[in-house]
Amino acid sequence: MRFHPHLVLMALPGLLLAACGKTAPTPGGAPPPRPVLAAQAVAQDVPLYLDEIGKCAAFEVVNVLPQVSGPVVGIHFKDGSEVKKGDLLFTIDPRPYEAELSKAKAILDQDRAKATYDASQLQRNEELRKKQVSAAEELDNARQAAAVSQAAVQADEAQVLTAQINLDYCTIRSPIDGRTGNHLVDVGNIVAANSTPLVIIKRQDPIYAEFTIPEAELPRVREFIQSGTLKVEAALPDHPEGIRTGAFDFIDSGVQADSGTVPMRAVFENSDRFFWPGQFVNIRILLDVLKGAVLVPAEAVQIGGKGPFVFTVKPDNTVEMRPIHPGQRQGEMMVISEGIAAGESIVVTGQLALAPGAAVRVTEWKSGQ
Hints:
Number of helices: 4
Helix content: 25-40%
């Protein structure tokens, strides 16, 4: 047979390509271990809580109205300023009320003089009657005149008191400690008694936080209210680290039919005006403390066709799919009420390529990863 060198050269590339397409088999034919981050389940005491959305409300709100009519002649505060109880806010022209007071005092003085005269006349008639030198009718008339005069004095004293009160009402003072809104009338406006709004004052320290709970949670919340363990935390949505602790203050007497919720209220110290009336806040109702609760990183919890589960790492570095009953979150951790024991190794990230029995290469998970 004749040898053809060019046929040998044509066959060599095909043999080389076939050789390059082969890979070295892994020992035993198993896939390589999957890299995962894992952490140990821990046991610690954690608070039992409910999270709700609340709204701040002023501790006291006063709509200041005048109690006498007349022109405003003075405004003695700046809009949005802090005022103390008794601070002067407005002045209404006092001159008409000063005149009424002077008139009432003059009438009182006049009637007191008459009452003094009638009292002396009564005494004289009583002495004459004892001596049998005056008629009984004259004594009766004297007694009647003295009584009428004394009644007139009492009525005058009431008129003087009323005039003094009206004069005092011309100076309008703050009834509470609080912060003013903007003034609603200017100097020169004539205001009507018990009708014209002047300013609204709101007390901001302490301050209320009002919120609701679902009616399904009512029995549990009432239980912890009665036991005295219930507390309330509040934080601004944009400042979750600024948590303030307050005291439970009020629970409504009924369930709201339209929403199926029960209104509640807590009170917070607010000397630095951290909270503001009308501001929304995140509310956490601290019911009690769960002793020795098991926690895992919240990222570890997966949802499958049969419900929540986690992958646990066994001593031989293979994984097991474990059904669990997750509870509430604690920051980046989550309470596991059933299915996991403290100390077990839990896969936190890398679950996508895992299946029960898969081998893994474990790296320790650290908070914030």
